[in-house]
Amino acid sequence: MPSSNPTSLTGWWCNATSEYAFLGFSYEVTDCQSKSQLTKDFKNIRNTFDGRYVRLYGACDKKGYYNDVVDAAWAAGLGVHALIWFGFDGGNQWKTRRDDLFGILHSNPKAKFVTRVVQFGSEPLFDDVLPHAQLAAQVTAAKKNLSSLHIPVTVSELAYGYQERGGAQDVLDVIDSINIHMLPFFDGKASTSDKAWPLVLRDLNWYIARGKGKKMYMDENGWPSKSYPGVEPNSPDAKADITNEHGYFTLLENHCKDLKNQAQGGVGWFAHIYSDDQEPGYGIYSDSGKLKFPFKPSTQC
What we know:
Layout: E1 21-28, H1 35-49, E2 53-57, H2 65-76, E3 79-85, H3 93-107, E4 115-121, H4 132-145, E5 153-158, H5 159-163, H6 169-174, E6 178-182, H7 197-210, E7 216-221, H8 242-254, H9 256-260, E8 268-271
Parallel strand pairs: 1-2, 1-8, 2-3, 3-4, 4-5, 5-6, 6-7, 7-8
């Protein structure tokens, strides 16, 4: 990062058509990690794994917390896929989170230089948080609010979330990029992760057919290393263990060129999630802070 804030976003971001293969990690902030912890982890994402981005997951409702995220990302040289978290309990707290985030994006001079996109999520269609027409209206309003900052807006969602709402084409039409939850472990046809490519490709093809050439990212993307209430397979053949978690990312590595050959320079993917102490079973790191398996994914092919 430069020693002082740039004066313009012109030429600041790499073109999205250069973004494919591994991009970074989902990172849960429900624990309201300190700025020093955020900075440590973000620098590790950048320096150990060559990550470009961190995609936020969950929510910290500490007033002004996104300022700490901005400072940590700036220090680490990472971009942020910010998130307006709806949660799982209904209610309107997401509106406060939205307004707080937008306030910081406008007031913090560094924010627009690290915030690559704002996501409505996670899985608001699948969780039936808002009717799809209202969600589309929220995206449209957010794009207007953030237009002077040139921050795009999207929705973080499963293909099935769109499908169970009749396709929700109104949402697909207004989002700036297609941010996909790719979790084939839960598919009714799942078995082991090394056989999951047809499931991944099926969902990608669904988006390709309806996405009108928009850039695609797989952001909540992974395979759990253990099954427990709330993370249970829908197929008796689906296997949740460290071998299969590792195998899923190996599968993406093996299909790097297939992902690269998609619209707008290819599909970029995140690993969900940084550590098991953020979401059990999905972490690249265990609760004890050790890598669960060798992980050095390709950032190009």
